């Protein structure tokens, strides 16, 4: 088990306070903490993106920042790509609530450089989301707080998920006390990182992706995660669902590569509360992206859960290479 993200949610744009939190995070030397993060609030209309970017020291190497959270009708979305190019520690999200704004959002994602697209997510939901998972994690709260997420897929597969969540919750509470901020809880999502595969867990329960029964298996895993949290008095925050980011799971990439897992299969799984279409390489196609977002709005409306999307625009050559992830196969769309 590792703490996938120890995230401080900062409720205002105070540079001195942000620097103080950066210093405290940098002082943490704990091998169980994989990433340290700072999330800022939904972006005010009267504050320029450049001024927000200036709050972050350019020499910060250990910490990543979820800086920008814009509504889909905000014209400043056009500025995001340029700012994200200046610092690979910066992440951003766009909140999409209305179908009539889908075209502008899908055109924006279409325009992104593939590497930049891994640091931009579209959130389909009623409001910005309080989660340690980036890019969508925002400080949509009234007081400075700490929340965490956990990398524990292997432990869960071995029947040790209960122990992992208990230990993670204790770690999160400890750092909240150290930082003198409110402790929010744990995003109990089951998420992968390469060989620590969530796809392996689903296949262990219901057969190869994609097979009949996979959707019910995902549904069952989510129920079990919430039962574990409830039994151990752990407060779930954020997504708290099975996550299937394709480019972060070796088995998922293998299934995409051999074409047993295609885009319609992945979208079907999201009906059973997989957090959304995440880190999926899809051939650059404006009309296709537009339709994917429309379908995702329909799914989110029915499941009534936050739904995140990260599409990596790719060339149609079969693969795309992204620093930090390696070679990612393009998913077939039919």
From TrEMBL:
SUPFAM superfamilies referenced in this protein's UniProt entry, alphabetically: PFL-like glycyl radical enzymes
InterPro entries, per the entry: UCP027893, UPF0210
Recorded superkingdom: Archaea
Pfam families listed in its UniProt record: DUF711 (PF05167)
Entry-linked Gene3D superfamilies: 3.20.70.20
Matches recorded under PANTHER family: DUF711 DOMAIN-CONTAINING PROTEIN, UPF0210 PROTEIN SPR0218
Protein name stated in the entry: DUF711 family protein
Gene: ST1378
């Amino acid at each position: 088990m590792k703490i996938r993200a120890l995230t401080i949610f900062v409720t205002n744009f105070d540079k001195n306070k942000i620097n103080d939190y950066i210093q405290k995070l940098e002082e943490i030397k704990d091998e169980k903490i994989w990433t340290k993060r700072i999330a800022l609030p939904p972006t005010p209309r009267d504050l320029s993106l450049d001024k927000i970017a200036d709050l972050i020291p350019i020499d910060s190497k250990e910490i990543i920042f979820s800086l920008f959270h814009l509504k889909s009708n905000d014209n400043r979305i056009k500025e995001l790509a340029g700012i994200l190019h200046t610092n690979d520690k910066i992440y951003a999200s766009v909140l999409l609530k209305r179908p009539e704004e889908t075209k502008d959002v899908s055109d924006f994602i279409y325009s992104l450089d593939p590497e930049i697209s891994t640091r931009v997510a579209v959130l389909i939901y009623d409001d910005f989301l309080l989660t340690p998972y980036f890019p969508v994690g925002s400080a949509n709260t009234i007081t400075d707080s700490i929340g965490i997420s956990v990398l524990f897929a292997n432990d869960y597969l071995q029947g040790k998920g209960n122990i992992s969540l208990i230990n993670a919750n204790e770690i999160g509470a400890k750092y909240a006390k150290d930082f003198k901020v409110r402790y929010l809880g744990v995003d109990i999502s089951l998420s992968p990182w390469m060989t620590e595969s969530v796809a392996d867990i689903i296949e262990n329960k219901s057969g190869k992706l994609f097979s009949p029964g996979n959707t019910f298996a995902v549904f069952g895993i989510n129920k079990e995660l919430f039962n574990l949290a409830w039994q151990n008095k752990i407060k779930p925050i954020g997504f708290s669902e099975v996550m299937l980011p394709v480019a972060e799971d070796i088995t998922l990439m293998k299934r995409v590569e051999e074409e047993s897992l295609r885009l319609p299969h992945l979208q079907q799984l999201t009906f059973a509360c997989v957090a959304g279409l995440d880190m999926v390489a899809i051939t650059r196609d404006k009309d296709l992206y537009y339709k994917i977002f429309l379908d995702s709005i329909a799914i989110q409306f029915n499941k009534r859960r936050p739904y995140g999307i990260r599409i990596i625009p790719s060339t149609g050559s079969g693969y795309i290479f992204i620093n930090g992830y390696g070679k990612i196969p393009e998913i077939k769309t039919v």
